[in-house]
Amino acid sequence: MSNVQRTWTINGKQTKLRFPPGRRLLDILRDDLGLTGSKESCGEGECGACTVLVNKEPVVSCILPAGQLVNGTDILTIEGIEKKRIGRVIQQAFLECGAVQCGFCIPGMVVAAYALLIKNPKPSVRAIREALAGNLCRCTGYTKIIQAVKLAATRMPQRK
Ligand code: FES
Ligand code: FES
C-alpha cells in the first residue's frame, strides 16, 4: 500500500510525515521522531504505557493505525506535557509521593492524569481511578499514584 502524507501538530509543532497508512502511531513517535517517552509494554492496547493525547483525549498509540488520523490532528506526548506547567506539577507530585518504582508505566500515567486534570482540576478519588483505569502498573499497587494525582490537583495552576 502506498504511503500517505499527513501534517499534524505534535507537541505544539507542525510536523509533516509520510508513512504507510497502517503504521502504528507509537512507531512513528518513537522510531521516526525519536519521542521515546511513550513506552511499549503489551503492544496490544491493554496496559496504557504508550498513552498519548490525540485531540486532548488519551489513546493507546500501540494499536492506532496512524493513517486514521487526519491532517490537523493535535498530538501531545509526554515530552510535550512535561514542558507544560500542569505536566511539571504532576511529575513533581509523583516524585514527592514516591509513586514511581521501575517507572515504565509512569509516562502513560502522567499523560492520563494530565488529560483528567485539564478537564477536571478537582477530581474525586473515584474520578482519578476511572481516569487511570486503562493504565496498568505492576510495581506500586496504585495507592501512591492516586495520592500523587490528588496532590497535583491541590496545586493546579490557574493557567495551563
Ligand atoms: S503498550 Fe500500548 S497499551 Fe500496552
Ligand atoms: S512503576 Fe513499574 S510498572 Fe508502574
Topology:
Blueprint: E1 4-10, E2 13-19, H1 25-32, E3 51-54, E4 57-60, E5 74-76, H2 78-81, H3 85-96, H4 106-119, H5 125-131, H6 143-154
Parallel strand pairs: 1-5
Antiparallel strand pairs: 1-2, 3-4, 3-5
Helix pairs in contact: 3-4, 3-6
The protein binds FE2/S2 (inorganic) cluster (2 copies).
Characterization of this structure:
This protein is α+β, with helices and mostly antiparallel strands and 160 residues long. The protein folds into 2 domains: 4-77, Beta-grasp domain (Ubiquitin-like (UB roll)); 81-154, DNA polymerase, domain 1 (Orthogonal Bundle), CATH 1.10.150. The protein is 36% helix and 16% strand. It is built from 6 helices and 5 strands, in the order E-E-H-E-E-E-H-H-H-H-H. It has helices at 25-32, 78-81, 85-96, 106-119, 125-131, 143-154, and strands spanning 4-10, 13-19, 51-54, 57-60, 74-76. The protein has a 5-stranded mixed β-sheet with strand order 2-1-5-3-4. A hairpin with a 2-residue loop joins strand 3 and strand 4 (57-60). The longest helix has 14 residues, at 106-119. It is globular. The site of one FE2/S2 (inorganic) cluster (FES) has 11 residues, from loops.
